[in-house]
Design a protein that fits this description.
By secondary structure, the chain is α/β, with parallel strands linked by helices. Helices cover 32% and strands 21% of the residues. The protein has a single domain, classed as 3-Layer(aba) Sandwich (Rossmann fold), CATH 3.40.50.150. The radius of gyration is 16 Å and the shape is globular.
């Protein structure tokens, strides 16, 4: 097993955080939803009836298959044409775009694959903040994205409905607080901003 499948994105039994993110971004979405770079399938596990995944790491794909999930081996750098156009009501992309050599190809295919009115949610490290902290610790990273570069590439891919913002910063015990008090992402971010705590991810929501 690779570090990617066995450590960084290992399969989990407790998927409350993935459930939290599903409710945050895709509540009411009837699918189908595509999880791009699905790793071992923790996000798919939230709603395997409407979420399918694509991944290139064979170890991760094997874990997904053992969990009974619908997955395909597809290289997002050059094989996205294998997936249908105007098909997905939702597309989820967590920490993938910073690994790409040709991100414009990727974004144009995200636009192509979404149904009219469909929504894509893309997460990437919060640069330039992350550059001096953890970005280059992952040797597979190719390029950082800022809010402005995300906006420009989304426009070039055909999107006009674009929303980009900073996620909240996760820390041990935050999950218990969220569940105990029903805290919203907006509230958490606002509270952290008071103490100059920066979120580690940028979130881009795109609608076709």
């Amino acid at each position: 097993m690779s570090y990617y499948s066995n450590t960084q994105y290992k399969a989990k039994e407790n998927i409350w955080f993935e459930q939290f993110y599903f409710e945050r971004f895709f509540k009411g979405n009837l699918g189908p939803i595509l999880d791009v770079g699905c790793a071992t399938g923790n996000f798919i596990a939230v709603r395997p009836d409407i979420i399918e995944g694509i991944e290139v790491d064979e170890d991760s794909l094997q874990v997904c298959r053992e969990r009974g999930f619908k997955v395909k081996k597809i290289n997002v750098e050059n094989e996205l044409e294998k997936l249908p156009a105007n098909f997905y009501q939702g597309i989820y992309v967590k920490q993938v775009v910073e690994h790409l050599c040709n991100p414009l190809y990727f974004f144009r295919n995200i636009y192509r694959m979404l149904k009219p009115g469909g929504k894509a949610v893309i997460l990437t490290p919060n640069c330039p903040y992350a550059l001096t902290r953890f970005f280059w610790d992952d040797y597979t990273h190719e390029r950082p994205f800022t809010k402005e570069s995300l906006k420009r590439i989304a426009l070039d891919a055909g999107f006009t409905k674009i929303k980009i913002y900073t996620d909240f910063h996760c820390f041990p015990g935050l999950g218990k607080l969220i569940r105990l008090f029903g805290l919203s992402p907006k509230f958490i971010s606002a509270a952290q901003n008071l103490f100059f705590i920066m979120g580690l991810s940028l979130i881009m929501e795109l609608e076709k």
